[in-house]
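Extended Data, panel c. Modelled sequence:
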Amino acid sequence: MPFPLLAIFTALLPLASSIPITFASHKAPFHLHIRNETLPDTAVARAGGVLNAEAAVEANQRDNTATRAFSSVDIKTSDGQCLFIDPTAGDFRQNLIPVQVQACTGSEGEKWDIITEGKHIEQEGAMLVVSTVTQGCLNFDPRRADGDSVILFSCGGRAGGEGGAADSQAFGYEDGQSQLALRPSNNAADICLVPDGGKLDSAGCNGNAEQQFQIG
């Protein structure tokens, strides 16, 4: 019989402190405050080396005012693979996470929300693609090195979470669409996101099947 959830919370409450930890799901997250010293040292691949839980929650806050066309769904390539993120593959704020392409496993790293209205999107006919796990936004930054221009980043485009809306995170969308190309709004050239060598990358749009993605 699983240990009662209430008992777990009761045991943790005396440890309450100032660091919020978000438990994400397809519903609104809830927060639990725990002492620094009770957190495991979670190594991350990029800047900082170790996850800063407080900074990560501040940088990637869930927009509870948003309109979600889809919640906690897969996004698949034309050959049926899933877009996937590893929350430890970015920096100490869970920014700069590369988006991988892999065989679908049903893991939480494969789940995405599609937001069409909210505090981080201003364009009509556009969407944000948001990781259900980290609440970071799919982001295209052509200033970054080749092969590293498609990443998750704090919605609004500011590393600490204080941003408003960013064209680099807005992708063309029409109501009811479930199959589409991922075209970032900030590219002067006609750029589409494409699977390439096990990760999501960018290339000139050509209308081919490999540039089409299935949502849900």
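DSSP finds two helices and 16 strands in the chain. This feature is highlighted in the accompanying rendering.
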